[in-house]
Structures are given as structure tokens and as C-alpha cells.
Amino acid sequence: MQPIKPIHNEADYELALQDIDRCLDAAAGSPERDRLEVLTVLVDDYEAKHYPISSRCDRQ
After folding, report:
1. pTM of the prediction?
2. CA-to-CA distance for 12 and 54, rounded, in angstroms?
């Protein structure tokens, strides 16, 4: 597994999503579950900055 790093662009974002997918079935308390938790925080932050919900709702 690659080290966890910040998400700076779409390529990093896609890699993080793939990594999340690989960790979804990880057992509670495992290193993979910890990785999943950290990656979801990073993805959530990236999505909030690049895909804000309010801008999609404002177009109606």
C-alpha cells in the first residue's frame, strides 16, 4: 500500500477512492480500517472544496 498523502488533484482523488474501495471490508480496529477513516476525511475535504453542494443547488 502507498503512503497516505494529501489530495491535490483529480488523479489523487481517484486513487484515494480506489484505496477506499479496497478498505471497505476491513475489520474494526485493523490498520486498513484506520486507513479507511483517514482517507474518507481527505476525500470529504476535497469534495467539499471542489464539488460544493450549495453551488449545485443554486443552479435550479
Report:
1. 0.83
2. 24
> How far apart, in whole angstroms, are the C-alpha atoms of residue 53 and residue 36?
23
In this predicted structure, the answer to whether residue 56 has a pLDDT above a threshold of 60 is: no
Q: All 3 cell numbers of residue 54?
A: 450549495
Report the interhelical angle of 10-23 vs 31-50 (nearest 10°): 150
State how far the Cα of 43 lies from the Cα of 60, in Å rounded to an integer. 26
Pick from 19, 14, 17: nearest CA to 3: 19
